[in-house]
Write a structure and sequence with these properties.
The chain is built from eight helices and 17 strands. The chain is of the alpha+beta class. The strands form six sheets. A six-stranded mixed β-sheet has the order 1-11-12-4-3-2. A hairpin with a 2-residue loop joins β11 (126-130) and β12 (133-140). The protein is globular, with a radius of gyration of 25 Å.
Length: 296
Amino acid sequence: MNKKLEVFLSQEELEQLVKTKKKIGQGKEGKIYRAEKGLLYKIYYKLSPHEREKLVRVPLKIYEIDEDGVKRVKEDANIKMNIEKKVTLNPFYIDRDGVKKVYSVDYVNEAVKRQPMVKNTTLPLGAIYIDNRFGGVILKEHKGHFDIHNIAILPLKSRLNILKKVLENLKELCDNNIYPIDFGNRSKNIYDHSNILVNIKGNVEFIDLEGRSTIYTREPNDNLKVKAYAEFYFLFLDIMFDEILDGEYEEDIDYVEHSLERKNLSKEYIKYIRKYDYLEYDVLKNLVSDFVKIKR
């Protein structure tokens, strides 16, 4: 589905949607409702853009006519006055580094534009406007899928095959300058989830490919690629070794390193806990393929 979709709702229609459509999830950005024809509506908590009246102080220009009859601003005019001015408020979120970021419909438009080049992942389908304000995104519903962390109960070969698909899909996204940087879910909170879904056939889907979880760039960005591959690395350690690095203190890192050594992971791969800036696709591909040797 490459055609750009758009949904325009009034505030009243949004309220009706909330009442009549089934809410199937919610996260840090918004709530997700089942719409029609296999679509989901993700409605952000904070809508944008909208305008409000705000009192601002602006310079008051005082003019004079000079000796040549030319109108100009007086040099010593330093008077300010209060006026009512409309200002645009954008929806925002706080990223995991504590930085305030603004939601942008540009990400949604970029996703639609790049979908023909991305074969293995369904990107966002279009924007939702509420009273002509950007307020959400249209997504495909992946019926019969579940959170990837549930594969921990599957046989070894099944887990590895799924993680191989995750890595290949991630590479395809990065090759198209789409960088998912928050899908590993390094948390033991049972209410948290990763941004990867799997079905019983082993098919893999990245989700939340807009907003705070994914960055789109025009040119390749090595720093963002490293962040994306680091997410896979820690996801792999979680699913295959049941090890989560949920802190950045030295004792946290030491504990995970020693635990992985006891579980026979080579130091060749353990070192990336501290040096994940050096992670790249080939390293991770070898990590997955070498796992059978590790477990012997």
